[in-house]
Amino acid sequence: MARKFFVGGNFKMNGTIESVKAIAKNLSEAQLDPNVDVVIAPPTLYLLLVREHLKPGLEVAAQNVFDKPNGAFTGEISVLQLKDSGINWTILGHSERRTILGESDEVVASKTKFATEGGVGVIWCCGESLEEREAGQTIAVIEKQLAAVAAKIGDWSKVVIAYEPIWAIGTGKVATVQQAQEVHEAIRKWLKANVNDKVAEETRILYGGSVNGKNCKELAKEKDIDGFLVGGASLKPEFVDIINSNL
Ligand code: PEP
């Protein structure tokens, strides 16, 4: 089965009412490859605004969601609230949340379970630090992250995996095509051995880390790279070139 190319844009804590509206409008008017799923993740405060200004067919994601249905959880948002607002996706396990906000593999897995069971798609992020790569631990780190999520979820159809080496995020230091493909292949192998053949074959694996309008085409040619999760460049006009990597 051919996996549909997927490009996510993570605005992080960037943007204003005017700038996110302009991005939504520009994307809605751009000529985009119809064979690509496009999902953009503005800050929580702008989710509804972006949904309103984005044409149908282009999706919006939260950057995080909580793993409780509702209640006394100040500052958090729920899966139900996302669904209620027409937000069908969330990013989970981004390295900035893991390292700065202290989210463990288990917390990320629990949130992934909650979101997928509530009908919200998850862009589930994993990746190693520079020290881990240099110590030859890249695959072991990712397998540990995968094992935590696989222990909690049964339905992988709503999960897109984003491999994001921490040393490549926001640094301008993109992984080589070989480094990315090697890890993507290892993730697929792990899914085959530990989940099943169908999940290994059908789950999309995105690369994230300093992707831009120039390096995207080479990366997109690799057989196990099914799209991108883009930070900085998702705020710029070149995001359209990344979406259209295969044209
Ligand atoms: C990200 O934050 O997910 C990311 C990949 O950032 P950047 O593209 O800026 O490296």
UniProtKB/TrEMBL annotation:
Keywords: Gluconeogenesis, Glycolysis, Isomerase. Gene3D superfamilies: Aldolase class I (3.20.20.70). Pathway: Carbohydrate degradation; glycolysis; D-glyceraldehyde 3-phosphate from glycerone phosphate: step 1/1; Carbohydrate biosynthesis; gluconeogenesis. Its EC number is 5.3.1.1. Transmembrane segments: none annotated. GO terms for biological process: gluconeogenesis; glyceraldehyde-3-phosphate biosynthetic process; glycerol catabolic process; glycolytic process. It comes from the Eukaryota. One of its GO terms (molecular function) is triose-phosphate isomerase activity. Homodimer. Belongs to the triosephosphate isomerase family. This is Triosephosphate isomerase. It comes from Cercophora newfieldiana.
